[in-house]
Amino acid sequence: MQKPSKKSTSKKLIVANWKMNPLKGSEAKKMFLGISKIANNLKNVETVICPPLVYLESLGQLVENRSCVLGAQDAFWEHSGAYTGQVSPDMVFNTKARYVIVGHSERRAMGETDEMVNKKIKSILQFPLIPIVCVGENTRDEDGLYIKDLKIQIRRSLAGLTPFELSRVVIAYEPVWAIGAKAKGVCTPAECREIVQVIQQVAADLSESADHARRITILYGGSVDITNAEGFLENGSVQGLLIGRASLDPKAFTQILKIAEKASK
After folding, report:
1. Residue 120 to residues 28, 43, 87, 116: CA-CA distances in angstroms?
2. Boundaries of every domain in the chain
3. Which of 112, 137, 174, 261 is catalytic?
């Protein structure tokens, strides 16, 4: 087996989650080429495109270098077997993808538990793949109990990982209450900074090393667009962004990439 994939320690990591879009492979190719044309020329940004699984192998043929790579939107924890509809990390790795999103809020809403996320992470880490682990609270309360719940979610999702395995993980903070048309508020860079500290504290406890905790790449992923990307990159204490809807517009997404490039200098 190849050596584990390594994250860049200096570049901003910008991840596009296309979800169940676009409808045609030709559209996916056009979008990827439009984005990679800009992304491949950025020195301080690593771009990860996570299309629907059916497009991963064909888009893999268009990847030119590490500046713009592919990721999967999910993977199951078993390697093969009678698991209808599931996709194994082995399959993802064979498409030449480098990253895998796990525990996304939309999947958690469909019943995915912290324990399931944990099993997926451990399976993914057996390959030269980097898991992007999504965590985040559904609501916020004035008493701050959401912090306790978030810590539990992080601990359960990352349970049993060695310090080295933890250092390979990317964590994406998704404040569910601030996402989409039904958002109940707007998350600010200051609120994001607070959560970054919580994530680092839990990671330090799990690894028994503040140094290993600092190596974990943390992204922000809550309705990111052109208007707020710079604020989170400059003042949110994150090393990158997980972008949904805005990533489906190559013009808007490449503008965010340029903002990230500027923020990295």
Report:
1. 26, 32, 11, 6
2. 12-263
3. 174
